[in-house]
Amino acid sequence: MSNANHSVELGVFLPVGNGGWITSTTSPQLPATYDYNRRVALLAEELGFDFALSMAKWRGYGGPSRHWDFTLESLTTMSGLAEATSRIGVWGTIHTMVFHPAVVAKMAAVIDQISNGRFGLNLVAGSNPADQGQMGLWMDLDHDERYALAEEWISVAKRLWTEDRVDHKGRFFTLEDCMSNPKPRTMPPIICAGASDRGFLFTIRNCTGSFLLGSDHDDFIKTGLRAKELAREVGRVGFKTYGLFTIVPGRTDKEAQERVDHYNAGVDTIALDNQTREYSSDRSLKQNTMANRFIQQGNERNSMTKAAVVGSPETIGRKLAHIARSADLDGITVIVPDFIDDLRTVGTEVVEVLAACGVTTKAFETARTGAYAH
């Protein structure tokens, strides 16, 4: 591994669902409100983060914590945050089974204007049958068919962003002399979290970057390297990979582990069972890497993924730097228990350790130059 500096983008995965990303009654009970997410986005911008991303979720998992029973809609949330912020990227998520590409093409062009070109899009080809099925929008497609739909979806959207009129008669969508104005000033960054080889190939061919998760730290590295390998095989230059990390900081490693133990003591097993049941109902479960990771968390009865990076800022920084460099990541996206205090820790202390380990971020430059007001 080279000793040269490795530059990465730094993003935050916004807590648009109540309780954030930890399935527990003893973790910070974050509100699924626009006001809270606006505070988080403004703080991330102040700290020098590159982007803020929100998920799309239509149905929660109940239990004592009512995990994700309240969620903000992604694109309207990011539209508001586009107006509230001035520099940070604002990335929204859509399910390709839920929104017609012509509808999103128009919405994206408007958010592009509001954000002055800072809007990005995260595509989800699947999810689980209950989430979209409650609205009658789930299509019982197999794994490959879902990506066939997503490929047709993004092809139509890109044509609407670049052509005056579009005629299209495909398997999933039909457009006749379809007009979509205004156009975005530039093609927005587009990411996808597909983790199977089929998902990676869809992402590499149609998107600007891949959104990666790992079941543990070694799996993060393996997955990141596989994405870059497939990109090289199809001749895709400049393809980016963004790792998603749950981070639990403490003043010491012991204190950080005590936080995890406290959250696990209140793990919401009912919510996890509901999550497992919903994802297990997918007939393409064998190929659905993301679903299997959610099911694994439920089977292990943990409030968060075992891939979480836990420890002091020094420990977290060293671990993240090792994964980022070993997996050749282009970006680090973070989830934290408390999106105010913990995010400050990441954006000031952890980025300093990353820099000392040869992984540079805009956030470190912001902290180093004093642009962030403590």
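^ that was protein a. below is b, sequence first then the tokens
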Amino acid sequence: MEFWGLFITALMPVLKVLIITALGTLLALNRFDILNKDARMHLNNMVYYVFGPAINVSILAEAITFKSLVMLWFMPINILLTFIIGSVLGWLLIKITRAPPHLHGLVLGCCAAGNLGNMPLIILPAVCKQRSRLFGDEDVCNRNGLAYSSVSMAIGSIYMWTYLYNLIRVSSCKNSKTNEVDDSLMNPESLLMTSPENTSTCSAGTLVSAENISQTKDSANDLDVETARTEGVAKVTAQEKVMKQLKKLEKKINLKTLLAPSTIGSIIGLMIGVIPPFKKGLVGEKAPLHVIEDSISMLGNATIPAMTLLVGANLASGLKASSIRFSVIIGIIIVRYIALPAFGVGILKGAIHIGLIPNDPLYRFLLLLQYAVPPAVTISTITQLFGAGVLECSVVMLATYTCASASLTLWSTFFIWLVL
């Protein structure tokens, strides 16, 4: 197909995203005040707890089988490579631009974590609906594209809430400790006002109260006393060492953030799709419990428009001025829209040459797309959680998503030409 034909095919999905995103930004402005802060919070909760898990369950239950799940084994590796390469490039960007310490986590996160769920969920079905039918039958393409995107969202969510969450947490805690030291030099009494909750947040990575900490210490002391009584010796056994390490790991990892609702929905959808009795009972018009799957599918249909409106509404905050350097924003744009996609093309060509990826053009297109998407919207949520670079994050998101309209179109055109 000619270049302009591929360009138009790639442009249409991006334009749809851009139009709905612009509508979300418009609704968030003070003049209309429809998607204000409270409205965004409630809509975000609906997407996070209801719509997102629903679309993952419905799509994966219908489209995924054990055979197709085995075929997708390379996707977790591909996403991991996007995080590793993005982190290395982000670290180089920090060194070159000399970004302030409290923005290190934000810069690394924006370079490493892409929008692996929302954008593929919007772009792939839109590409399948084009008249050119580049990826075959529309229904089959749409079903497979949504399934691939849901798996991408689930895997990306796990990486983000393990790596990215702790990355920004450590960066914010370092900055808070530096500010506390500076304040104590000016006012020694400020050391007495440091709350144990803040200290525990930096050390453990989870928001716990002083009461919970004391209860944990008491239970640990009781366990030590009981162990000493039963064993009668001070020597620590191998089993006790393992238990001690597991307890430390449990404190460091926040399982509630790791097992996000969308991840749980993906696990349930995979179980239904892979286990034949579950699939026969829930999926299909002849299934006795198909009304349950139909209801979940109806909820999932609201995910994509709600997500896109939220992206636009959150970008409205980026219209405000911030202290972030222009060189940092330009660096993030270069990393995300030039360097990472170039690495992705090289990695995919190498994997195809070795024979690691099956001959599925739509699957290969998604693997390439994972290197070219803008930064993950989850970064905004995490920065708000720790109060580190919230306004700067909004400015970066506004700049990167504005540039994404042109970048995604050009890279998608090239990717479609490459995989067909």
